[in-house]
Design brief:
Elements (H helix, E strand, L loop, with lengths): L14 E4 L4 E4 L2 E2 H7 L2 H9 L11 H17 L3 H4 L4 H10 L7 H22 L13 H10 L5 H13 L7 H11 L4 H12 L8 H11 L5 H10 L17 H13 L3 H24 L9 H11 L7 H23 L19
Antiparallel strand pairs: 1-2, 2-3
The protein binds acetyl coenzyme *A.
Length: about 350
Amino acid sequence: MPGLDDVIAAETVLSDVDGANGRLIIRGHPVEELARSATAESVAALLLDGFFDDMPKGGGLAQQIGRTRRDIFHRLQPHLPAIASLPPVEALRAGMALLPDGDDFQTALRLLAGPAVLTPAIIRLRRGERPLPPDPHAGQAADMLQMLTGVIPTAAAARALNAYLATVCEHGLNASTFAARVVASTKAGLVSAAMAGISALKGPLHGGAPGPVLDMLDAIGEAGNAETWLRQALGRGERLMGFGHRIYRVRDPRADALKAALRALGTTGAASSRLALAEQVEKVALDMLHREKPGRPLKTNVEFYTAVLLDALGFPSDSFTCVFVTGRMPGWIAHAREQELSGRLIRPQSRYVGPAPQQAA
Ligand code: ACO
């Protein structure tokens, strides 16, 4: 069973990914609703509800995440220059690895706050700029943008980042969540599970795709070049980044949720031209994939408009996966807790197809 297609490896209360109909329900809420109105903190509260006895209700969680951002900044500040010499997602993984492991709510808080603090700090250090401390009273999305740029973001920008973080917060048993659940099943702890999640998410077939999407749009440059560029890429046997999905047989609903967030952001100037180009490239790519790969349901996935949205918000393309980690973290923690509480070690089998032992003459 290469790729474990169609294998049900867990029961979950967290999300229903309906690939046939292009619907995603997260703990009873359609993803479109969360993208419109949820925040990083409210989706964390939604996903972690019932998994920690001491998790505060209402605004208490947001306050605790804010205070934890400040604590983590001070805890990790001395290590930041060494960490930031690595590519961004490896730097983020190295920083997160410095957090103490455990299964308790304090560990979960550090995991929720860590990527929001480390991502802007790593970006700034790689640009030769000083990392900026968090504001524990700001919302997580607004604070990330403020730590990135040094200025208080517009409400529209904070809303757009919240829309992104909410859209990607949870998505069933994808590769990174499965990796996190396998580690959690050994009782290694939530930080270990999250490290597995980050490592799996990093790959270009999973959460590493949006950087290459932006590279593709840059390389195409203008809509008139799309047909030739995309045909040549397919001719070289390459995959078009931001298209195709193992589960969705129709369009990934998160792509439209992010496109709506981009429209609500009201892009102007370069970001607006980039959105227009993306829409034209998407159309040409979908037509071409339909023609070149008949019978394959290759549609736009979440990563395509992730690239355009995070670029419009000022994140550099090599850091997009770090922002994805920030968004997906509550999903990984909730799955890890669900796995720990269901209490069964994940241990499938392999079939040996190697050589038999040599018979003695
Ligand atoms: N461009 C061109 N061809 C593609 C693409 C693509 N984006 N995706 C799949 N195909 C082709 C494959 O080459 C294969 O063709 P073949 O049978 O003629 O060799 C066929 O479609 C099926 O490919 P599979 O690998 O079986 O598809 P799978 O469902 O396993 O792959 C995946 C899903 C990895 C997402 C794939 O579509 C892909 O590589 N897409 C590009 C990378 C990407 O956007 N990743 C982000 C996914 S969303 C997320 O993880 C958050």
